């Protein structure tokens, strides 16, 4: 299953609800952008540096 859409449409919300409802496992992407207050490293993304 691919969850895709522009920024701000609720992709993360859908993924969280599917995880809860089906005990599903999803891959975790990596990003170099800063982590927001709500995000958890290793759960929402792997937050890495450019180095």
Structural topology:
Blueprint: H1 11-22, E1 30-31, E2 46-47
Parallel strand pairs: 1-2
Describe this structure in words.
The structure is a single chain. With 51 residues, the chain is an alpha+beta fold. 24% of the residues lie in helices and 8% in strands. A two-stranded parallel sheet has the order 1-2. The chain starts with 10 loop residues before the first helix and ends with a strand. The model has no long low-confidence stretch (mean pLDDT 90).
List keywords for this structure.
single chain, about 50 residues, alpha+beta, 2 strands
Mean pLDDT: 90
In spatial order, strands of the major sheet run 1-2
Proportion of residues in helical segments: 10-25%
Count, helices: 1
Shape: globular
Task: Spell out the helices and strands N to C.
Answer: HEE
Helix and strand content put the structural class at alpha+beta
* Low-pLDDT residue intervals, each spanning 5 or more residues: none
How far do the termini sit from each other?
31 Å
The share of residues in extended strands comes to 5-15%
